[in-house]
Amino acid sequence: MKKTLIYIIVAAVLVGLAAYKIAGNKEKQKTEVAEVAKQVDKINVNVVTVKRENINTDYSANGTFLPKQEMNQSSEIAGRIVNVMVKEGSRVSAGQVLATIKKDAIEVDVAQAQNNLQNAVIDNQRYENAFKTGGVTKQQVDNSRLQLKNAQAAVKAQGVRVNDASIRAGISGTINKKMVEPGTVVSIGTSMFEIVNINSLKLSVLVDESQIGRIQLGQEVPINVNVLPEDSFSGRITFIAPKSDASLNFPVEIEVQNKGNLKAGMYATALFKTNHGAETQNMLTVPAEAFVNGVSSGQLFIVENGTAKLVKVTIGKIYGDKVQILSGLNDGQQVITSGQINLDNGSKINIVK
Length: 353
Hints:
Layout: H1 2-40, E1 43-49, E2 51-53, E3 59-74, E4 79-84, E5 91-92, E6 97-101, H2 104-132, H3 138-164, E7 166-168, E8 173-178, E9 185-186, E10 191-208, H4 209-212, E11 220-225, E12 233-240, E13 249-257, E14 267-272, E15 283-287, E16 299-304, E17 307-312, E18 314-319, E19 322-327, E20 334-338, E21 349-351
């Protein structure tokens, strides 16, 4: 009987504890639900604090070096190569003979042209003398004169062929590639040598449309070469394209005098010094991403008593991802930079960062 009573008491205690715990859990759940309910109507946003700063307007652009001059030296006549006087890496001057083409057949044609010229001279002289005495007509004399001129032209043409049998460098520079050897048969226009002049080089870069108005022809530009970090280089802007490409970038060329260690094809960075001094000092700025519907709208949200307030500001110049604020904001105010698409004027917000 006593055991039964004890069991009943223990069971009642357990039931009571279980009921108490369930009641406590319900109260905790109610509290959590209420807290979540408070947060549901808040929109998560990121913010930045407005502050004054000095803007660095220097602009850098990457590109590769190109030779100031380069050309493929080709043959102007057909024939077989008999001599090649240079090799890859050889320094050559404009007009220097690089190779010669067999000209035996050309010399035969030269001799024939000279013989024809000699005959034409004799015939013309005979007709000229005969015309003085009335032995030939004016038309016959004119024909003899024309034949003489044609014979003279033929001799000159063969002389050009003889000269063309010697392949001469069109520019001064270095033989970058040699495509022929003695015995090679070439046709008119066959590429024989690639010549590059790297006494000075051109650094070709693309400059964004927002920066193109800040550079000018003749401007000196510091240049960093990736593979030559210990050396310093500078160049002068020699070309600014009058038209942008499809990406609104403008091709710009910077001429650099080669100290001997630069090579065409090297990768480099040009640093355009565009700092405007006091004009870019102590400026009130905000990120461009803070604006609603783009910077041109001049509208953004600020934080005010836990809500988002839409304000209109007057913008100044744009420096990359920074926008100058002339009026409408104060130093220290918080501006919302993300989540604006979900906001209305007066929306409750939850600052994530």
